[in-house]
Every structure is written in structure tokens, then in C-alpha cells.
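// run 5 | inverse folding | seed 20
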């Protein structure tokens, strides 16, 4: 499995997964008073089941936690990741 790059596009309220500079996925969120609610995640069909979704979610959650924001999983991919990694449900201390 190749590693992807993940770019935060704050103006679009999303993270994008890039493989060789081509967008292969997105992780969409909205910020609320309670935290950053991840509402949708998707990897394009030809790149699914290769671990890219997990890499993208981990990168988005790492960035969110580093910013001191509580991550909230609404979409299934993020919700499942948070259930498997409960330490990710809290922001990092600042």
C-alpha cells in the first residue's frame, strides 16, 4: 500500500487525499461549538479497500486534535475509526 498525502482545504471545510497529486478522496466536516463534526468521507471506487480511507481519516483527526478541536464522527468511516481508537476522541492538550 502506498502512502497518500492529505491536504486540509479549510475554505472548503474538507481534507483531500492525494495519490501522486491526484485527488482520490475527501473528508468533509463542519465546525460547531461542540467540535469538528466529520459528516462525509469517500475514496474513489478504484482506490477503495487499499487503506487510503484510514490514512485520510487519521490525518484529518491528527490535524483536528493538534488544533485543540474535539473530533466528532458522524460519517461511518470516522465513527468506526473513533470506536477502534478511543484516544482520538479527545483533542491534544495545548
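// decoded
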Amino acid at each position: 500500500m502506498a502512502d497518500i498525502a492529505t491536504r486540509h482545504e479549510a475554505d472548503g471545510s474538507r481534507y483531500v487525499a492525494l495519490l501522486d497529486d491526484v485527488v482520490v478522496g475527501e473528508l468533509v466536516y463542519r465546525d460547531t461549538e461542540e467540535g469538528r463534526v466529520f459528516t462525509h468521507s469517500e475514496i474513489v471506487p478504484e482506490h477503495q479497500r487499499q487503506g487510503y480511507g484510514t490514512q485520510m481519516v487519521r490525518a484529518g483527526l491528527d490535524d483536528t486534535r493538534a488544533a485543540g478541536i474535539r473530533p466528532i464522527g458522524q460519517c461511518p468511516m470516522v465513527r468506526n475509526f473513533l470506536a477502534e481508537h478511543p484516544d482520538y476522541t479527545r483533542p491534544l492538550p495545548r
